[in-house]
Write a structure and sequence with these properties.
It is built from three helices and no strands. It is mainly α. α2 runs antiparallel to α3. The longest helix has 22 residues. It is elongated.
Length: about 60
């Protein structure tokens, strides 16, 4: 039996949250070019990427 769509959505959200925590822990050590790459990755990763970029002061 396949997994329900709701469970898939929950799994994706949890994975994203884990990725955010991992990225945020490395944020202080990044230089400006790495932060720019990270901002582009966040835009691709989630619809709320622009909000995260603003909150984390990436631009």
């Amino acid at each position: 039996m396949s997994i329900s769509e709701r469970k898939k959505e929950i799994r994706r959200r949890r994975k994203r949250r884990e990725q955010y925590a991992h990225i945020q822990s490395k944020l202080a050590k990044m230089d400006s070019s790495a932060k720019e790459k990270l901002a582009n990755k966040l835009r691709r990763m989630t619809p709320a990427g622009d909000d995260l970029i603003e909150r984390w002061n990436l631009q």
